[in-house]
C-alpha cells in the first residue's frame, strides 16, 4: 500500500471520541467527523444516529414546513455488551426435562429480563413488561406480577403458532434471540416504542451467549443500563432462582 | 639537653601553646598527608570515580586554622577540601568512603570529593564552585549571632577566588555587618594553571582586606604554627563581635591541580617545585618540634606516624568494604518529605476575612512569622529602614530592627550566599532580590548551592530560605525589570516555585515558605501589588502543590498562574456569553505542580488551554500539555493549546509591550480555537526557513487606547488648569487625599504646596501646576484618587 493511500484511509479521531466509541462498541467507520479535516469528535459519537432509528420517529415529529430532505431527528443511543455463561441454565433445563418439565432458553430469558427490571427499577418504564421478538412479530409478557413459567411458555408457543403480534403493546424492552452463530451484531436498532433492545446470540458451542443491549440514551442513563445488564447476567448464570 | 628541658626553656621564652596542641597539629598534618597519599593511589587504580583534587603540600593551613575551631563552628571549603574536612574532624573512614562513592560516605555517596558535608563536625562543605562558600561563612556567622552564641563561620578559598565577584561581595557584606567570620585565602600561586601574578596587578591578597575596612594578615601557609597564631587572633576577634579578618596563607600544592594534571612542565618548573618541597610543612614542623621546641624526639613522632598509618589503612578498608548506594534511593532527598511543613497541612476553617492590599497582606504574613520565629533574618536592598522599593517591607524595620531587617549592599550574590549559609545552620532567611531579573546575579547560589544542598548531603542539610522577588511585566518596566522566569527555576530539582495570584494566596504561601524545609522562589507578580482581595484573618497557610479552581466550567480547562489568572477569568466571563463554560485552574505553585487537579479538570472538560506569562520555549504550556498526553490522552477531544508571552525581551514602548503580552482577548480567541479543534499555532522556535517572520504574517495586535485616567473626564466647568494626582511608582495605583492646604478662591503660585495625597508607599505633595486662583476642589479629604486623576482646578 502506498503512503498516500494509507494517509487517505486514516481516520482522524479525537482520543476522547475514540474512547467513547470503544466503550459503545461503535465502529469508527460508521461515524461522521465534524471536526477539522473530518476529525471525529466526542459529540459525533454521542450524537450517533443508528440507521433504523428514523423509522420509529412519530409522524408528528416531522414538521410539515420542513425543507426537503427533512432534518433527521437525532436519537442518541448507547450500547453495552456482555458474555453470559449458559452451561448452568442448560444443565438445569436438562434436569427439569428428566422430570417432565420441558423449557427452552427462550422461556428463561424473559423471566431473567423481568428479574433484572425488579432489581434495577430505574430501567423499566412502569412494570417493565418484556416483549419477545418472534419471527412474525412480538409477544409481550407481564413481568410483575410474574406469569407462571408454564403459562409463559404456553403463550410463546401459541403466539408462534397463530402469528400474534403485540408490537403496539407497551413494553420497556424487546428481546431477540438470534440463531446460534459465531457472528454477532455490534449494533442493533431500537424497535418502535421500546427504549431498550436486548439481542442474545448463543454461541455455536452452546455454552455461552453474547448479549448486546442497546438503549435510548435520552430515556436511560448509561450507568442504569449497565446495571440492568449486569443483573440479567447474574440471573441467567444462577438459573435456579428463575424457577422459584 | 633533654627534649623536656628544651620545651620548658622555649615555653618561658615564647608564646608556645601546650605540648598536646603542638603534637596534635603534627598528627593532623600527618593524617591529611597519609590519607591523601592513599586516596591518590586509589584514584590511580580507578577505585574513586570522578575527579580528585589533592591538598598535598598545603596541610599546615587547614590544620593550623581548624585547631581553633569547635565542632559547632563551621568551615566552608573548596574543590581541594579533603584536608579541611579531616582537619575539622570528619571521620577518615567515612570521608574515604565518600571519595569511593559508597553508601557509608559522609554524604551517602551523593556528594563525593568536591561536596563533602558533615553537620556533626561543622563541615559546611567542600565546593565545586570557586568562591561560592565565602558568602556562606558570612551567613553562618550571622546565624550563630542571631541564635545567641559565639560560634563563627570560616571560609577557605584559593587565590583564584580572590578575583571572583563572590569574594568582593562576601567580604564587603561581612565587614559592614561585623559578621563573626574568618576568611582564609590559601594562595598556592595558581588558579588552576594560571599564575596569580598574571591575572592581578595586586597579588598581595591580604592587602585587599583594606578595601573592606577589615584586618588582612599574610602568613607562611607552610608554617603550621604561624597559621595557628594568626588564626588564634582572628578567631578571638570574630567571637568577640569585632568582625571578620582576612588571612592570606602563602602555600603551594606539590601535586597537580587534579590527579592526572602534570605536576610540572606546563605551567610550573622543576626548580619551583623543588624549592617548595624543601619547605614541606610536615618536615619543617617535625624539625621545629625536635630541634627548636624540643617537644618530642624523632622516635615519638615516628610513633604518631605509625598510628596514623593504621588509621588510614582502616579508612581504606572501610571504604572498600562499604556497599554501593542502593539505586532505588536515587530519587530521595530532593525535597523534604513531606514537602509541606506541618502548619500548612493543618485544616483550618476560615471564619473571618478582611479586604487587604497584596503588599500589606504579605507584610503581615512576614511579620507574623518573624514574631513567631526569632531566627528569621531578612536580607534586601533598601528593605530595611526605607521599607522596600515597593513599600513591601514597610514598618518591618521599625518592629524587628536592623539586625533582622538587614539592609544589604547591592550584592545579590553576597547576601544570597549568606542567606544560604544562615538558613542551613539554624536560622531562616529571606533574600529579597527586588526584581526577578536580578536573581541571575546570584543564580549560582540559588541553583548550585541552595537547590542542591539537601540532595548532595543525602538529606542531612538543607537551605530553608525564601528568595523573594517582584516578577513579571508591569507598565513598561522594560527589558531588565519585567521577567518572571518561573520555568527556569522550576527546571532545577530542589527549588519550590510559587506564583500567587491573590493577596490571600500570596500571604499564605509566604507563611508556608517561612516554615518550609527547602529553598522557595517566591515570584510575586508586580502587576498585582496594587490589587486587593479578601484575606483570612488569623493564621493562614497555603500548602505547596495544591491548585485552586478559580472558576468552574464544563467545556474547557484554562490553566493560568499569577497575573494571567485575572486575564483568564475576564476571558471566561466573555466566553460565558457565547455559551462556552471555561474552568480556570490556578496552580499557585509551579513546583510542586498540582497536575492531578489539572487532569481532573480535563477529564471533565476534555479540552485544555495553558496561558502563561513566561515564554513558550521549554515552558509551562508544553509541560502541561505533554503531561495530559501521558496521563489523560483518552480524555482529549481537541489538541491542547498554549498561549505565552511572545518570544522577545520585554520592550519599553507601551504599544510594543501590549503586543507582546497575553491579554484576555487573546485568551478568549485561544479558547475558541481549541474548541474548534485548531489550537493557536505558536512560532517560538525561530526555525530558519520554516516560515517567514515578516510583519505581514503576524496578526496585528489589537491596539488599545491607553487607559484613560477616570477623573480627568470629570472636568470642572470652564477651562481651568487641572490639578492631578501624579503618575509615580509603578506598583501604586491610587492614593487618598489627606489634606488640602488651600481653599477654593485662594490665590496660588506655581510650585506652591496645595494638597497632600497618601499612597501605600509615601505621602505625595501636590504642587500648583500654574499660578492663579484655586477654583475647584473635586476630591475632598478622604477621597481615593487613581493615578493621573484630577483632584481640582486652578484658573489663571
Please provide a written account of the structure.
The complex is a heterodimer of chains A (244) and B (796). Chain A has 2 domains: 3-48, Irregular (Dihydrolipoamide Transferase), CATH 4.10.320.10; 77-243, Chloramphenicol Acetyltransferase (2-Layer Sandwich). In chain A, 32% of the residues lie in helices and 16% in strands. Chain A is built from 7 helices and 6 strands. Chain A has a 6-stranded mixed β-sheet with strand order 1-6-5-4-2-3. In chain A, helix 5 packs across helix 6 (149-162) and helix 5 (105-119) crosses helix 7 (222-237). The termini of chain A are far apart. Chain B folds into 3 domains: 3-325, Thiamin diphosphate (ThDP)-binding fold, Pyr/PP domains (Rossmann fold); 472-706, 3-Layer(aba) Sandwich (Rossmann fold), CATH 3.40.50; 710-795, RNA polymerase II/Efflux pump adaptor protein, barrel-sandwich hybrid domain (OB fold (Dihydrolipoamide Acetyltransferase, E2P), Beta Barrel). In chain B, helix 3 runs parallel beside helix 8 (224-239), helix 5 crosses helix 11 (298-321) and helix 6 packs across helix 15. The radius of gyration of chain B is 32 Å and the shape is globular. Residues 696-700 and 706-717 of chain B have low confidence and may be disordered. The A-B interface holds A 14-19, 35-36, 39, 41-42 and B 606, 633-638, 676-678.
Amino acid at each position: 500500500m502506498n503512503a498516500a493511500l494509507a494517509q487517505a484511509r486514516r481516520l482522524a479521531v479525537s482520543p476522547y471520541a475514540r474512547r467513547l466509541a470503544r466503550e459503545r462498541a461503535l465502529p469508527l467507520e460508521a461515524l461522521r467527523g465534524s471536526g477539522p479535516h473530518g476529525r471525529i469528535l466526542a459529540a459525533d459519537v454521542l450524537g450517533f444516529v443508528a440507521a433504523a432509528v428514523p423509522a420509529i420517529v412519530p409522524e408528528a415529529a416531522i414538521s410539515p414546513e420542513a425543507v426537503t430532505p427533512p432534518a433527521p431527528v437525532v436519537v442518541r443511543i448507547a450500547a453495552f455488551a456482555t458474555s453470559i455463561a449458559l452451561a448452568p441454565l442448560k444443565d438445569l433445563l436438562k434436569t427439569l426435562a428428566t422430570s417432565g418439565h420441558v423449557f427452552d432458553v427462550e422461556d428463561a430469558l424473559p423471566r431473567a429480563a423481568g428479574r433484572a427490571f425488579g432489581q434495577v427499577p430505574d430501567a423499566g418504564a412502569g412494570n417493565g413488561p418484556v416483549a419477545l421478538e418472534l419471527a412474525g412479530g412480538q409477544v409481550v409478557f407481564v413481568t410483575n406480577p410474574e406469569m407462571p413459567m408454564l403459562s409463559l411458555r404456553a403463550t410463546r408457543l401459541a403466539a408462534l403458532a397463530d402469528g400474534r403480534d403485540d408490537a403496539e403493546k407497551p413494553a420497556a424492552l424487546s428481546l431477540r434471540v438470534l440463531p446460534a452463530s459465531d457472528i454477532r451484531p455490534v449494533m442493533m436498532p431500537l424497535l418502535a416504542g421500546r427504549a431498550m433492545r436486548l439481542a442474545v446470540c448463543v454461541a455455536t458451542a452452546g455454552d455461552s451467549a453474547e448479549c448486546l443491549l442497546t438503549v435510548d440514551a435520552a430515556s436511560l442513563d448509561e450507568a442504569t443500563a449497565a446495571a440492568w445488564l449486569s443483573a440479567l447476567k447474574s440471573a441467567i448464570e444462577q438459573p435456579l432462582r428463575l424457577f422459584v | 639537653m633533654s627534649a623536656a628541658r628544651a620545651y620548658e626553656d622555649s615555653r618561658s621564652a615564647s608564646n608556645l601553646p601546650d605540648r598536646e596542641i603542638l603534637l596534635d597539629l603534627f598528627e593532623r598534618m600527618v593524617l591529611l598527608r597519609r590519607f591523601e597519599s592513599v586516596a591518590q593511589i586509589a584514584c590511580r587504580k580507578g577505585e574513586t570515580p570522578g575527579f580528585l583534587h589533592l591538598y598535598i603540600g598545603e596541610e599546615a593551613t587547614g590544620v593550623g586554622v581548624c585547631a581553633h575551631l569547635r565542632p559547632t563552628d563551621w568551615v566552608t571549603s573548596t574543590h581541594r577540601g579533603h584536608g579541611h574536612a579531616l582537619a575539622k574532624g570528619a571521620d577518615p573512614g567515612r570521608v574515604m568512603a565518600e571519595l569511593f562513592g559508597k553508601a557509608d560516605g559522609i554524604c551517602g555517596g551523593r556528594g563525593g570529593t568536591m561536596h563533602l558535608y558533615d553537620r556533626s563536625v561543622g563541615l559546611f562543605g567542600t565546593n565545586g564552585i570557586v568562591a561560592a562558600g565565602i558568602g556562606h561563612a558570612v551567613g553562618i556567622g550571622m546565624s550563630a549571632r542571631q541564635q545567641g552564641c559565639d560560634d563563627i563561620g570560616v571560609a577557605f578559598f584559593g587565590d583564584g577566588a580572590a578575583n571572583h565577584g563572590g569574594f568582593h561581595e562576601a567580604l564587603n557584606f561581612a565587614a559592614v555587618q561585623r559578621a563573626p567570620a574568618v576568611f582564609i585565602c590559601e594562595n598556592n600561586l595558581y588558579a588552576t594553571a594560571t599564575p596569580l601574578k598574571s591575572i592581578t596587578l595586586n597579588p598581595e591578597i591580604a592587602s585587599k582586606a583594606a578595601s573592606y575596612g577589615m584586618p588582612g594578615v599574610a602568613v607562611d601557609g607552610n608554617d603550621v604554627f604561624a597559621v595557628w597564631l594568626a588564626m588564634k587572633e582572628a578567631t578571638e576577634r570574630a567571637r568577640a563581635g569585632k568582625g571578620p579578618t582576612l588571612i592570606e596563607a602563602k602555600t603551594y600544592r606539590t601535586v597537580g591541580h587534579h590527579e592526572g594534571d602534570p605536576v610540572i612542565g606546563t605551567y610550573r618548573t622543576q626548580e619551583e617545585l623543588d624549592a617548595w618541597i624543601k619547605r614541606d610543612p610536615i618536615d619543617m614542623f617535625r624539625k621545629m618540634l625536635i630541634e627548636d621546641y624540643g617537644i618530642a624526639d624523632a622516635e615519638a613522632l615516628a610513633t604518631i606516624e605509625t598510628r596514623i598509618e593504621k588509621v588510614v589503612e582502616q579508612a581504606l578498608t572501610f571504604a572498600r568494604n562499604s556497599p554501593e548506594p542502593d539505586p532505588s534511593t536515587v530519587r530521595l532527598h530532593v525535597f523534604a518529605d513531606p514537602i509541606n511543613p506541618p502548619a500548612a497541612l493543618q485544616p483550618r476553617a476560615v471564619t473571618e476575612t478582611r479586604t487587604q492590599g497584596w503588599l500589606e497582606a504579605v507584610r503581615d504574613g512576614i511579620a507574623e512569622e518573624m514574631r513567631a520565629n526569632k531566627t528569621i533574618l531578612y536580607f534586601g536592598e533598601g528593605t530595611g529602614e526605607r521599607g522596600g522599593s515597593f513599600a513591601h517591607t514597610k514598618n518591618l524595620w521599625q518592629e524587628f530592627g536592623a539586625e533582622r531587617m538587614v539592609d544589604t549592599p547591592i550584592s545579590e550574590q553576597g547576601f544570597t550566599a549568606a542567606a544560604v549559609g544562615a538558613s542551613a545552620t539554624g536560622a531562616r532567611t529571606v533574600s529579597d532580590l527586588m526584581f526577578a531579573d536580578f536573581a541571575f546575579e546570584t543564580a549560582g547560589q540559588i541553583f548550585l548551592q541552595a537547590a542542591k544542598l539537601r540532595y548532595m548531603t543525602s538529606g542531612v542539610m538543607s537551605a530553608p530560605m525564601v528568595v523573594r522577588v517582584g516578577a513579571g511585566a508591569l507598565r513598561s518596566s522594560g527589558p531588565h525589570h519585567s521577567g518572571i522566569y518561573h520555568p527556569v527555576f522550576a527546571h532545577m530539582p530542589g527549588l519550590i516555585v510559587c506564583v500567587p495570584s491573590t493577596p490571600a494566596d500570596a500571604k499564605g504561601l509566604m507563611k508556608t515558605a517561612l516554615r518550609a524545609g527547602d529553598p522557595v522562589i517566591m515570584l510575586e507578580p508586580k502587576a498585582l501589588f496594587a490589587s486587593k482581595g479578601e484575606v483570612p484573618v488569623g493564621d493562614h497557610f497555603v500548602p505547596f502543590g495544591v491548585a485552586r479552581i478559580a472558576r468552574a466550567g464544563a467545556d474547557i480547562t484554562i490553566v493560568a498562574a499569577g497575573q494571567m489568572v485575572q486575564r483568564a477569568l475576564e476571558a471566561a466571563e466573555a466566553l460565558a456569553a457565547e455559551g462556552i463554560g471555561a474552568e480556570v485552574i490556578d496552580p499557585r505553585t509551579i513546583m510542586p505542580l498540582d497536575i492531578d487537579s489539572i487532569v481532573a479538570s480535563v477529564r471533565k472538560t476534555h479540552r485544555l488551554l495553558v496561558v502563561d506569562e513566561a515564554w513558550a520555549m521549554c515552558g509551562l504550556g508544553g509541560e502541561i500539555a505533554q503531561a495530559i498526553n501521558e496521563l489523560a490522552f483518552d480524555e482529549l477531544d481537541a489538541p491542547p493549546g498554549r498561549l505565552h508571552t511572545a518570544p522577545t525581551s520585554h520592550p519599553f514602548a507601551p504599544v510594543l509591550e501590549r503586543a507582546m503580552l497575553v491579554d484576555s482577548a487573546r485568551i478568549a480567541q485561544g479558547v475558541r480555537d481549541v474548541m474548534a479543534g485548531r489550537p493557536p499555532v505558536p512560532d517560538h522556535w525561530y526555525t530558519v526557513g520554516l516560515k517567514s517572520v515578516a510583519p505581514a504574517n503576524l496578526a496585528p495586535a489589537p491596539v488599545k487606547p491607553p487607559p484613560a485616567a477616570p477623573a480627568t473626564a470629570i472636568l470642572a466647568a470652564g477651562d481651568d488648569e487641572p490639578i492631578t494626582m501624579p503618575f509615580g511608582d509603578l506598583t501604586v495605583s491610587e492614593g487618598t487625599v489627606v489634606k488640602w492646604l488651600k481653599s477654593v478662591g485662594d490665590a496660588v503660585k506655581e510650585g506652591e504646596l496645595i494638597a497632600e495625597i497618601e499612597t501605600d508607599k509615601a505621602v505625595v505633595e501636590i504642587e500648583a501646576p500654574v499660578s492663579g486662583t484655586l477654583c475647584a476642589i473635586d476630591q475632598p479629604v478622604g477621597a481615593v484618587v487613581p493615578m493621573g486623576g484630577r483632584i481640582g482646578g486652578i484658573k489663571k
